[in-house]
Design brief:
Blueprint (H helix, E strand, L loop, with lengths): L4 H9 L6 H12 L5 H14 L3 H13 L15 E4 L8 H9 L5 E5 L9 H5 L11 H10 L2 E5 L6 H11 L7 H14 L4 E8 L8 H17 L3 E8 L7 E2 L1 H12 L5 H17 L8 H5 L2 H12 L13 E6 L4 E6 L1 H13 L13 E4 L6 E2 L4 E7 L5 H9 L2 E4 L9 E5 L1
Parallel strand pairs: 1-4, 2-3, 4-5
Antiparallel strand pairs: 5-13, 6-9, 7-11, 8-10, 8-12, 9-11
This protein binds uracil (URA).
Uracil binds next to helix 9.
Length: 425
Amino acid sequence: MSFSAVELIIKKREHEVLTTDEINWLVDAYTKGVVADEQMSAMAMAILLNGMERREILDLTMAMIASGERLDFSGLSKPTADKHSTGGVGDKITLPLAPLVASYGVAVPQLSGRGLGHTGGTLDKLEAISGWQAGLSNTELYSQLAEVGAVVCAAGSGLAPADKKLYALRDVTGTVEAIPLIASSIMSKKIAEGTSALVLDVKVGSGAFMKTLDRAGELAKTLVQIGQDAGVKTSALLTDMSTPLGLKIGNALEVEESIEVLTGGGPADVIEITVELAREMLAHSGINDVDPAENLQNGKAMDVFRKMISAQGGDLDAELPKAKEFHTIRATGSGFISRLDALSVGVASWRLGAGRERKEDAVQFGAGVELHAQLGDSIEEGDALMTLYTDTPEKFERAIELASSAVDFSQQAPPKREMILGRVS
Ligand code: URA
């Protein structure tokens, strides 16, 4: 069946609803180069302005899945569950979460990406571990899932290639923010990955993609609807990203903090998010009678983490990379920390070299920011607030300016930070 791209663009421009056949044709024709970039740009803008109905969003997602391969773990003897985060500053949750959930007998296939921009990517963090390899064949992925129970690896280019093409186009046409496009983009990759349950961590606040609870709630609802319509058990938590997660931001620094959490320590906020997401993933797999905090305390999750890292060539006994230079920022006043802005700290860490500006850049594994205090802590003038790390000290000046601007003090303690802001199921 064939359609006219121009007619479909005009239909969406006039607020009409596209049929399943029209959407299937559009995605297929765009992937094959029959629909041109300029036509797909116009369509993306019409979708951003006029939206899509629930059925259209599902059709778009399924058409993008059909553009590539779909993994199948139904032959495994265990249930599968995965998590997707919309990204945040210091968000290293995948690292303790995947082995934690696997330690209860649920397989976690976590196909991840590299970071671009201030939020950093899971693969960049794990590549800070000596020898660790992100690339696995589908056969290796399957056998690691069967034997170890948890895999974090690079998503191959075979999953939802239509999304890859469309995402690059959205990036240069001001159409990234459209909720139907974001939701279908995220879910096409996650559904193609073959998990039977999915928990979404939709971050809210300055360091997140979604700055307000309203927008984050709308995205969460759309993501959950797609998952459920496609037969994947899906729920979402809305979690705070107005201030960084944990005390360590940067690749090796975040591996270090994840190991602290996996060995029964680490900051309370990282533990809380890890445990709550694990609870959701386990519940989708029919496991409701455990407290996931236990396997962080008793070393069982760490045992799985060791196996998961060494199965991919990583050596956890090797020292993690350290930056060559550091600079400590001290408090210029006394009182409670009443604001510690995630975006400013995230951009400072990125500028120090923890993230990349262009896709082809390398990251510095040791670069980043270590906070010595969190939101709500009481501080005296002159106390160390945070330490910045980099191999390229010429980056300090701008990063110090940014990181210093992240912090405000007050004489009264600010309200306690709520980590979980909502749940959608
Ligand atoms: N992440 C994705 O994978 N796609 C989007 O559109 C936005 C964030």
